[in-house]
Design brief:
Elements: E1 9-16, H1 22-32, E2 37-45, H2 54-66, E3 75-76
Parallel strand pairs: 1-2, 2-3
Length: 77
């Protein structure tokens, strides 16, 4: 699978997510392609991170509101 030509897609992986393995986020971002899949990591616990982790929430908000794409591989602790 690849999404060449698509706008960037933020793929968020939480290292302590009990429902969705972290490795799946890495794989999905890779399969979307280098200019599309943007992998973001949250070092935390639980299934949801948006609105919980200030770093991640800021990155997502900035992307959605301003179109600024975060650096692939960004880690929010």
């Amino acid at each position: 699978m690849s999404a060449d030509g698509a706008d960037p897609v933020l793929v968020i992986g939480n290292t302590g997510d009990p429902a969705t393995p972290y490795e799946g986020a890495e794989k999905m971002a890779d399969e979307l392609g280098k200019k599309v899949g943007v992998h973001l990591t949250v070092d935390g616990e639980g299934h949801g991170t948006y609105g919980v982790n200030d770093c991640l929430t800021g990155l997502v908000d900035t992307y959605l509101l301003d179109g600024t794409v975060p650096r692939n591989g960004t880690n929010c602790s």
